[in-house]
Amino acid sequence: MKLHDLKPAPGSRKERTRVGRGIAAGQGKTAGRGTKGQKSRAGGNLPAWFEGGQTPAHIRMPKLHGFKRRWRIEYQVVNVGRISEYAESGRFGAETGASPLTVNTEVLLSAGLISTERLPVKVLGHGDVTVKLFVAVDAFTKSAREKIEGAGGFVQATAPVVVKGETKQDRADARAAIAAEKQKATDAADAARWATPAPSATAAEATTPAADATAPVADAEEPAEEEASTADADADAGVTEAALAVEAPPADEAAAETVAEDEEPAADEEAAAGDEFVADDESADDEAAADDDGAADDESGAEEPDETPSARRRARKTTDSADE
Q1: Are 75 and 119 in contact (CB under 8 A)?
Q2: What is the DSSP letter of 3?
Q3: Is the entire prediction scored with pTM above 0.90?
Q4: 282-306 average pLDDT score
Q5: What value does the mean pLDDT take over residues 243-259?
Q6: Where are the beta strands (DSSP E) in the chain?
Q7: All residues at 6 or more sequence positions from 106 whose CB lies less than 8 Å from its CB, including other chains
Q8: Region 6-19: what's the mean pLDDT?
Q9: Are 286 and 309 in contact (CB under 8 A)?
Q10: Contact 145, 133 (CB under 8 A)
Q11: Distance, C-alpha 309 to centroid of its chain
């Protein structure tokens, strides 16, 4: 056997398929890339996380991996095997005996199994329990509870028990029902208190019957006196009105007299004005006739004295004014 005689085992190596070398080679034409499209071109390979153009998962997720549930309770965990070992070795400050050894948060903190009292403690079921224990912490797993009770011990969960499947609405309904029951009890107590009459008021009513009996009589006398005084006042008012009616003339008669007095001068003035208008009309006629006579006299050349009615009327007015 020489070096150049060494060959791989038959079938362990397979020749590379040469594509794109004609149809007769078996991988001609499209060379197994299908027809058209990005992946059929040279350099058209896409990364494994490509999702067709939509935002890929590694960008949709937060930059920092993982998340924390907002209402998650962070427990300090202790296994039942460690608690049992510490109890056997006396590191809890007490020796084991017939009675269960009490283990709580203070005992675990003093022994160094937990680091603080501010966080709740949960007991897990890893390990074996060989001593009787009375463990009082916030929470237990099912296996831890079974192992402690199987060794003759007891457990007490100090944290409130959360019912599986219970929702916030269920808890709100429970609180509302409790509040309704309290309000109902309060209303019943108030109704019972107001239904019973006060003893002091009853006694006062029983001790003062005479005063209540005399009160209506006094009330009846007072309205009678008020009615009498009202009648006297009405009688006086009637007498006064009658006297005034006799002394003073009726308002309608006085108004009628005033109107008559006002109408007399007005009638005289209207009559005088009518006479003046008539006199003026007559004087206009006389003047027209005089003009005609004057024209005739001018034509005849003779002068006659002015004896027209208007002249006589003017003379009469002058004489009357002088007499006055």
Answers
A1: yes
A2: G
A3: no
A4: 51
A5: 48
A6: 76-79, 101-104, 121-124, 133-137, 139-140, 154-157
A7: 117
A8: 92
A9: yes
A10: no
A11: 105
Looking at residue 105, its pLDDT comes to 93
Structure tokens at 25: 């080679």
Contact 175, 195 (CB under 8 A): no
Q: Which residue has the tokens 């501010």?
A: 118
Closest CA to 155 of 185, 188, 125: 125
What are the DSSP calls for 11-47, one per residue? TS--PPP--SS-GGGTS-TTTTS-SSSGGGSTT----
**Which amino acid belongs to residue 88?**
E
Rounded CA-CA distance 284/244 in Å is 60
Amino acid at 267: A
> By the 8 A CB rule, do 127 and 84 touch?
yes
| Angle separating helix axes 80-89 and 142-150, nearest 10 degrees | 30
Q: Which two tokens stand for residue 26?
A: 């078996």
Q: What is the DSSP string of 40-106?
A: GSTT----TT--TTSPPHHHHS-SSS----TT---PEEEEHHHHHHHHHHTTTSS---SSPEEEEHH
> CA gyration radius for the chain?
69
The DSSP code sequence of 100-127 is: PEEEEHHHHHHHTS-S-SSS-EEEE--S
Residue length of the chain: 324
Q: Which of the listed ranges 13-17, 59-63, 166-170, 249-253 does the model predict with the highest average pLDDT?
A: 13-17
At 324 the pLDDT is 55
119 vs 138: CA distance, rounded Å: 10
Q: Which residue has the higher pLDDT, 275 or 1?
A: 1
Cα 108 from Cα 87, distance rounded (Å): 11
Say which residues have a Cβ less than 8 Å from residue 133's Cβ, sequence separation at least 6. 83, 84, 87, 100, 101, 103, 148, 151, 153, 154
Residue 2 binned pLDDT confidence (cut-offs 50, 70, 90): very high
Residue with tokens 């190596």: 13
Burial of 82 (0-12, 13-18, 19+ CB in 10 A): middle
* Dist. CA 117–CA 114, nearest whole Å: 8
What's the gap between Cα 127 and its chain centre? 62
